[in-house]
Design brief:
D-tyrosyl-trna(Tyr) Deacylase, Chain: A; 32% helix; globular
């Protein structure tokens, strides 16, 4: 199957291609659709012995992509050009009809193009990372594929927990005023498609030099000097956030490769199944780690930890690797290599872990609100943990100020008893998980991590896992999504000043004022502000426009009047022009940087000294 998310798709039947072409009764000889997922399907000879299972698996794959891209409808289009091992016409038509029925049964609006006819078609593809997906459904895969749960079965796996501690069936979600919460339920539980469209943030990524690396494996990114400023600023900020919880935190660093022959490593890795990067070196099977757990746990087990040290945090900026499927990859959001600011907090017992979790929960919400977003949460837990800890969970929900979606998981299946996923609802109406925390009751024993209590006895601590601001890349994604929302509301999109690659751009009217422009930039740079000088031989209007295109928060134009008066002409993004001295500009920018890291500029100060990125 070749799945294409089409901004526009049209076809018209022309003439019979096969004597066995199906009759057109009930089918559309012409069709025009906007925002459609077009499934070009080839049925192969190997599929014939297992058509029901193959068709079901094909439906699963189409529905998943349909949900992710937010298409309004699916077109099943017979297409014999993806293989040279074609099934018989009768079996091919049988499979296509089965796919059509299966999609309709799942609540998808579906159209099937007539089989056995020559057709002309026109397609305009959106061009985002999920817009073109190739899927191969193997009969052996299809036999083992579990049947997807029905909507009613999914609903029984979920409940709503209100701020007052009331547990409600998920069917009552529409009674709540929170649009974010309703969107979460409709996408996660009911699988209703979002509005769809091309994500605007992808254009912003291009603007700042955030790209896929075409010379690497799929899902790996590269960053221009401007983008690297953002990455390193977020990385340093994540360390600051960890230190604001009010507990001692140690920062560590380690390797990204671990030996699967170590039982603890193997047991933990098995939870991630086929999402592992596995390599063989010198007869050993090694995995690239998918979080900071392995390295931090390997160190903790060797430490002499007293109850007096607890709660104790251990932090690492960890390169993490997960073998996501090609069709799932999304720039800055779903990656095969990403950076996690992982924090693990050792606690004496479950009660202490619950107390610390309240601080973690509060901090996670505090940070997303600084970006102008709000979270809606999914609480993954067992029914027994909920019943035994209802007051604790209700307190978490009360802090959110809106309901949370509870997802019930199998008893004893996971090493955690609570796993909270914090989702923003992006500008296209899709839930996007950014922050997380878990209460882990299994890994301390698995890795033999212990502490000594007041009586000198050893115990396994309870471990909180969290990435307070999410991965570095997803935090940037959330920031860019906020900018997309600003643009959708008719406001100039921008980044927070602390994250803007260039915070102040100084533009001399002519080269006669270049020395003065350099002096202004030097004054700002001494204060830790990223300032550059656009000295190019371009018109003033062109240089001002280029600064606006780059979303520079403060653009300073200097000429004769500014030199003589000592007052700078400053364009403040989203506000207009203002007059201020260098000191006033410096103090204003520093006020916006308070509490945030100051990362230097990673390129020459003069714009003329830089190549085009």
């Amino acid at each position: 199957m070749l799945l294409i998310h089409a901004e526009r798709f049209e076809y018209s039947v022309r003439e019979r291609a096969l004597p066995s072409a199906e009759e057109l009764d009930g089918l559309k000889p012409q069709l025009s659709l906007d925002n459609a997922l077009v499934a070009f399907v080839t049925v192969e000879e190997g599929d014939e012995g297992n058509l029901p299972s193959v068709s079901e698996r094909a439906c699963d794959e189409i529905v998943e992509v349909h949900r992710r891209v937010g298409a309004s409808a699916v077109v099943v289009y017979p297409y014999a050009h993806l293989s040279n091992r074609l099934a018989s016409s009768a079996k091919a038509l049988e499979a296509l009809k089965a796919v059509e029925r299966g999609l309709r049964a799942r609540g998808v609006e579906v159209y099937r193009a007539p089989f056995g006819w020559y057709k002309e078609f026109m397609i305009r593809c959106y061009g985002h990372p999920l817009a073109e997906v190739f899927k191969v459904i193997e009969p052996s895969q299809a036999k083992a594929a579990p049947q997807p749960p029905s909507r009613e079965e999914r609903a029984r796996e979920y409940a709503i927990l209100t701020p007052s501690g009331e547990l409600l069936p998920v069917s009552e979600y529409e009674r709540f005023e929170s649009e974010l919460f309703r969107a979460l339920v409709e996408r996660e539980v009911l699988k209703k498609p979002a509005a769809g469209g091309r994500p605007r943030y992808l254009d912003y990524c291009k603007k700042f030099g955030i790209e896929w690396e075409p010379m690497s494996d799929l899902g790996h990114m590269r960053f221009s000097p401007e983008a690297l400023v953002m990455v390193n600023a977020v990385a340093e900020y994540s360390w600051r956030c960890a230190n604001e919880l009010g507990i001692p935190v140690l920062r560590v660093k380690g390797t990204n490769m671990f030996d699967l022959s170590v039982p603890a490593v193997k047991q933990h890795a098995e939870l991630y199944g086929d999402r592992l990067y596995e390599i063989r070196v010198g007869g050993k099977s090694l995995i690239l780690r998918y979080a900071a757990c392995h390295q931090q746990f390997a160190m903790m087990k060797d430490w002499l930890i007293s109850y007096r040290h607890l709660p104790l945090g251990v932090f690492e900026l960890a390169d993490s690797y997960r073998l996501e499927q090609p069709g799932e990859l999304l720039l800055c959001f779903r990656l095969r290599k990403f950076t996690m600011p992982d924090l693990h907090i050792l606690c004496r017992d479950l009660e202490e872990a619950k107390e610390v979790s309240l601080k973690v929960h509060e901090k996670i919400y505090e940070e997303i609100k600084k970006l102008g977003h709000d979270y809606v949460s999914i609480y993954n837990t067992t029914r027994s943990f909920l019943e035994g800890n209802r007051d604790f969970l209700a307190k978490l929900v009360e802090m959110e100020g809106k309901p949370a979606l509870v997802h019930f998981v199998e008893e004893g299946k996971y090493y955690w008893v609570l796993n909270v996923e914090y989702n923003i609802i992006d500008v296209l109406g899709r839930p996007r998980e950014i922050g997380t925390f878990q209460i882990d009751v299994g890994n301390a024993e698995r890795f033999n991590i212990t502490y000594v209590d007041e009586r000198g006895e050893r115990h396994h601590p309870v471990i909180i896992h969290t990435a307070l601001i999410g991965s570095i890349e997803r935090y940037i994604y959330a920031t860019l999504d906020k900018a997309a929302r600003m643009e959708a509301e008719g406001r100039p999109p921008r980044l927070p000043t602390w994250l803007s690659p260039i915070q102040v751009r100084v533009i001399p009217v002519t080269r006669d004022y270049l020395e003065y422009a350099e002096a202004v930039a030097s004054e700002l740079e001494r204060a830790g502000i990223r300032a550059d000088v656009d000295d190019r031989d371009e018109t003033l209007a062109r240089r001002v426009r280029d600064a606006e295109v780059k979303w520079v928060p403060y653009v300073v134009v200097v000429g004769k009047r500014e030199v003589e008066s000592g007052l700078l002409s400053v364009r403040v993004r989203g506000e207009g022009e203002a007059k201020m001295t260098v000191e006033e500009l410096r103090d204003r920018v520093l006020g916006e940087l308070e509490g945030y890291p100051k990362v230097p500029l990673y390129m020459p100060r003069r714009v003329s000294d830089r190549p085009a990125f």
